[in-house]
Design a protein that fits this description.
The structure holds two protein chains of two kinds.
Chain A (H helix, E strand, L loop, with lengths): L1 E2 H7 L10 H13 L4 E3 L2 E3 L5
Antiparallel strand pairs in A: 2-3
Chain B lengths: L2 H20 L4 H19 L9 H30 L17 H7 L3 H11 L5 H8 L3 H21 L5 E2 L10
Helix pairs in contact in B: 1-2, 1-3, 2-3, 3-6, 5-7, 6-7
Classes of the chains: A alpha+beta, B mainly alpha.
Chain lengths: 50, 176
């Protein structure tokens, strides 16, 4: 008898990956450009674009 | 969540979310969806208390974005086909990632829902509560779906003449 979970784990086409450095850098730059919204009670106030 | 916290969350979970996406779509789309997933997370939790365990929330966002993209692709394909006046395909195209070995071929014959519960367990290595959070259901419901999906996969594999699999004799989650 073969374990279904084990079969699937062995068939995993992408066991482990690394995020490309360029993608990480782009994302962090985007986050720096997008300040978090200010929450006041139930209202969300988005900061004015610079 | 500050930008520094966000960076730490990305460094801890970025690869797991990227792997989740790469297992379900091509590399270019996976990269786009990875950025979109984390930006959505930032918009939702930036300047606000984020979840104690963010991975299930990130995977839930990634899953929703992937589904939106597939719906959009399907609409575009359908439109192209209608314009070309070609007959409707008899079966839905399955992700390329699921072609190849016997197990993956069997997996491709399951419904999207069955596949997802099996893969959250075996490939994403999520615990029951984590997987249930990704799917937006109760843990009991997830476990029931997982058991049934295993039974269906075992049945397909048995019919295909492969190994006789054991659907229920295994553990049901890796990260517990």
């Amino acid at each position: 008898m073969t374990d279904i979970r084990q079969l699937l784990m062995e068939a995993n086409p992408v066991p482990a990956v690394q995020v490309p450095d360029a993608l990480r850098a782009e994302l962090m730059a985007e986050v720096q450009r997008t300040p978090p919204p200010v929450r006041r009670g139930r209202r969300i106030q988005w900061p004015c674009p610079a | 969540m500050t930008a520094q916290t966000f960076e730490a969350v990305f460094d801890e979970h970025g690869a797991a979310v990227f792997a989740y996406l790469l297992r379900r779509t091509g590399r270019e789309d996976a990269e786009d969806l990875l950025s979109e997933t984390f930006l959505t997370f930032w918009r939702k939790y930036g300047g606000h208390r984020m979840p104690d365990e963010p991975l299930p929330f990130l995977l839930a966002i990634a899953r929703r974005l992937l589904a939106n993209q597939r719906r959009s692709d399907a609409r575009r394909t359908a439109l192209t086909e209608r314009m070309a006046r070609e007959p409707e395909p008899e079966r839905v195209d399955l992700p390329d990632q699921l072609a190849g070995t016997g197990v993956l071929d069997a997996l491709a014959q399951l419904s999207e829902q069955d596949r997802e519960v099996l893969l959250l367990d075996a490939w994403e290595q999520l615990s029951g509560p984590e997987a249930a959070r990704v799917l937006g259901c109760r843990e009991g419901t997830y476990r029931q779906r997982l058991r049934r999906a295993r039974e269906r996969l075992a049945s397909i594999l048995e019919q295909a003449g492969g190994a006789t699999p054991q659907p229920d004799g295994s553990s049901t989650g890796g990260r517990r």
